[in-house]
Amino acid sequence: MRSWLLLAALLPHAALASEHGLSLGATAVILTNGANNVLSPRLGLEAAYTYGRDAWRLGGGVRWVPGGGGSLPAEVYARVLLTPPSGTWRPAVGPEVGLSGLPINLPTRGDLPNELKDERARRSMPFYIAVHAQPLRFVFRSFTVSALELQWGTPIHQPGSALRLQLGLLHLGVAL
């Protein structure tokens, strides 16, 4: 009986200590597989959910980046961020893993035989890993504003075969 009373007393406190949030933002993605093969920045939209507890924020979301190649111009991702638990300025940093429909193997200069192009497309996996940083993230009561987020990543299947750079232009969020 005492354990139920203890659980009933601690559960509301744990729920109040956690923070759920939704955010929307604009982002720019740059993909490259070498100095000569850089795609122009592709602008897109991002929607994310986060669950924060103390200094940790767990979350995920979806990015829609139209234009260019790729079977589906979208990405689905999950991330874990470490951030200060209080204060107005709350920068965050941590790993992100995702599934991307954006092209990973970019066309090389010169012409490759179709067999080699097909082999490269087959070997490229759409999963990536990245380091995500939000140096200009601010919290005002239940609202969040983040600008100039930076992400640097590579495909999981062939690390270093391609580089993805992402710049989060502006993200606005609200705590639920």
Automatic annotation (TrEMBL):
UniProt keyword annotations, A-Z: Signal
Signal peptide coordinates: 1-17
Protein name: Outer membrane protein beta-barrel domain-containing protein
